[in-house]
Write a structure and sequence with these properties.
Elements lengths: L1 E8 L5 H16 L4 E8 L6 E8 L2 H8 L2 H10 L8 E6 L7
Antiparallel strand pairs: 1-3, 1-4, 2-3
Helix pairs in contact: 1-3
Length: 99
């Protein structure tokens, strides 16, 4: 399993637009092949900072989404609303114990 974490900081006037874009596309993203979970989090101390966490079966499914028309459409709209560059990382689930 691959976990993708994307931190985004928005202009104050961009938050409502971002939330509308996310709401319009969340089901389509969740229905992409290999997507097991998509969550949107808002920073408790900074209402302009949002984070998405998505779980993918593997890197190929994530890359397929990132090359899709859906991603290009969503990201093309959302990136115009940022106040600075986003930060993204991909993580693999790692357990220290077997529980």
């Amino acid at each position: 399993m691959l976990i993708r974490i994307v931190h985004m900081h928005f202009r104050e006037d961009g938050v409502d637009s971002f939330l509308l874009i996310f709401a319009d596309h969340v089901d389509a993203i969740r229905n992409m092949q290999g997507c097991r979970l998509l969550q949107l989090l808002r920073d408790a101390d900074d209402p302009l900072h949002f984070t998405t966490i998505s779980h993918w079966d593997d890197v190929e499914n994530l890359e397929s989404y990132r090359q899709s028309e859906l991603f290009r459409r969503v990201w093309g709209s959302v990136k115009k609303l940022f106040s600075g560059p986003p930060f993204a990382s991909s993580m693999e689930k790692f357990l220290m114990r077997d529980d």
